Amino acid sequence: MCAPPCPRSLLCLRLNGCISDCLYTLRSVQWPSEDTLDACKKLHAYIDNDFDCALDFLSLGGLAVLKSFLTKALQVKAEECRDAACDVLAIAENKVPKGWKSLSSDIMPPPLRFDVSSFLNCPPFDWDALMGMRGEVSHSSTSPNPVSSPSPDLVIRRILIEEKRQTSQQDVGYLLWPASLPFTRWLVAHRRVLFGGGVQVLELGSGCGLCGIAAGIFSHPHFMQETDAKKRSHVVLSDFNPLVLENLRRNAAFNEPSLHADQSEHISLGCLSQGPESLFSVEKLDWKEEGELNSLFDVVIGCDIICTEEDAAAVAKVCRQRLKEGGGLALICVPPNEVRWGVSALPAALSKEELEWSVISLHPSFLQASFSGEVNDSLEVGGVQAEEMWKAQELANETCVAPGYERGLKIFAASRKK
Concatenated DSSP letters for 32-92? Predict the structure, then answer.
C-alpha cells in the first residue's frame, strides 16, 4: 500500500487517525493475524513518504507499541511480522532530522488550521494610502466582484522546542507570534492593491510562514478574479535558521496550490511543484550578512521581526537592497515600542536608507477572528464584534506565544525615493 501522493494528503492522513489505527491494531491484535503485518506495511509506507508521519508515530507512543509487538512476535516466532516491525522502527528513526526531539518525545503539537476566508471581502481600509505609496491613482477602494467561492484553510506547523523558554534569537522562528494573525488578515483584505497583476514577494524572517503563505495563496488568480494564469505571484519565504527553513519548506508544501486551480471551482492545496510554476520558494537570508539572494521584489513583508536596534537597521537596509524602484513597497508590521526593543529605531533607520515611509494603524476589524461584514471603529462594543474579539483572543492564546499586544500593532509602509 502506498501513501497518498502529496504533502497535504499526508497531513489529512495523519489528522484523520490512520497512524493511530495502525498502532491500535498492533496493540490489540490476537495472534496469529494478518492484520498486524498489514499494519506494519502501512506504517512503513506512510513514514517513508513524509518525516512528519515519523514524528506523529513517535509522539503517539509508536516506539513502545513496536517494542511490545516485537516481544510478542519473538514469542510466537512470527518472523515476517518481526522483520516488518524492525523495518518500521529503522525508517522512523532515519526520517527524523537532526535537531528534532528524540525518539522519547512528548506529544507533538498538531499542525494548525487558519480560516481567513471572511477577510476576502473585508473592505481594504488602507487602499488609498497604499496606492499613493506605489505611485498609482485609485478610483475605488472596494471590490466590485466579491469572492463567493470556498477558500481553503491555511495549514501551519510549528516546531516543538525542548526548553520551556527560548534561549536566543536563533529559535524565535519555531513558534507563531500573535502579530502574525492580524497582519495575515490585513494582507488578505488588501491583496488586490498589493499583489494584483502578479508580483514578486519576499517575506523577511518568515518563521513558520503564515503571513507569506497567506500572501501567496490569496494572490492566486482564483481569489484575485484574474483569468490569466500568467499573472500568478511568487513568494520567497526566508529565514536563517536551518531547522526553521526545513519547517518552512514543509509548510509551503502543505499549502502549494494545484497548477490547474485556475480552471477549477475549488482551489486544491498540497500539490507541491518544484519547478518554475511553484508559488513558493524557500531561501536562506541573514539580514546582517551578504546573502546569495540577489533578486529584486515588488513587495517585501515582515511581521514582528525587530527586537533590537541592530535589527531595525538591518531590516531597513535589506528593504532598500531588495525593493524594485518605481512602485516597490515594503510592509513591516511591528508591535508597540514598549513591547519590542528596537522598534523605536525603525523610522530613523528607514530614513537613513533613503526610503520614504508612512505608518498605518491596523483597523480594529483585523483584530477579530472573522469579519462580520459590519465596520465599526470601536473595540469596546457588544454583540457580534465583541464575540469575534473574544474568539480572536482565544485563537491567539491557543496558537501563539506571548499574546496581548495586538491592539497596538502598526505597519511601516516604505518605498524607495523616486
Answer: S-HHHHHHHHHHHHHHHH-HHHHHHHHHTTHHHHHHHHHHHHHHHT-HHHHHHHHHHHHHH
